[in-house]
Write a structure and sequence with these properties.
26% strand, three-stranded antiparallel beta sheet, four-stranded antiparallel beta sheet, alpha+beta, 195 residues
């Protein structure tokens, strides 16, 4: 379940997501866009008093190299609690590739929270790139291993009663970054491979 996911990126460990492959060709290293890439209409933001501030996009995200991929991956992780708390999914969706199961799960959780009048509180997250791997020549994807630190979080009902909670956590994840329409997209976020 995604809403609880990032807390270890609890989402990822809990969901047991596997890395997914992305198709491409050596002639077109960018992750290709298709009509199914069009994001669903953004959920309306309902900023709660405890909602984290939207993180600032790093300048390095403008780069098309490994440094740009790393900056985009860290930014995406920092964006997650803001999106979960506010329902402002526009940028999150723009950075989510259609193959990203983690992204789809998070968006489904947000829709469920809003439909039930629930709120996601806390869960501020930061990511630090531990390892950047060589860009895959076939797909154009940069795999990166990140260390994720996430504060405690909880889900409350419309009256503020706690429905569920997650403790502060630290975890390592594998993030796959690709490019689409001149920007970075997250192809997948999953538990870091063992060994």
């Amino acid at each position: 379940m995604s809403g609880m996911v990032l807390r270890a990126i609890g989402l990822i460990a809990t969901a047991g997501l596997a890395l997914s492959a992305c198709t491409g060709s050596p002639q077109e290293p960018e992750v290709s866009a298709s009509p199914s890439d069009d994001p669903a209409p953004a959920a309306s933001a309902s900023l709660s008093p405890e909602a984290p501030a939207k993180p600032e996009r790093p300048e390095a995200m403008k780069r098309k190299d490994a440094e740009g991929a790393a900056a985009a991956a860290e930014y995406f992780i920092e964006l997650y609690p803001y999106v979960m708390s506010t329902g402002d999914t526009e940028e999150f969706e723009a950075m989510s590739h259609r193959a990203c199961g983690f992204c789809a799960d998070a968006l489904a959780d947000i829709a469920r929270f809003q439909a039930r009048g629930q709120n996601y509180v806390g869960g501020e997250a930061s990511g630090t790139v531990l390892t950047t791997y060589e860009r895959d020549n076939l797909t154009g994807i940069y795999p990166l291993d990140l260390s994720i630190q996430q504060a405690a979080s909880r889900v409350t009902d419309s009256a503020g009663a706690e429905i569920s909670s997650a403790s502060e956590s630290n975890s390592e994840v594998r993030v796959e970054m690709g490019r689409r329409d001149g920007g970075w997209v997250v192809v997948e976020v999953a538990s870091a491979p063992e060994g």
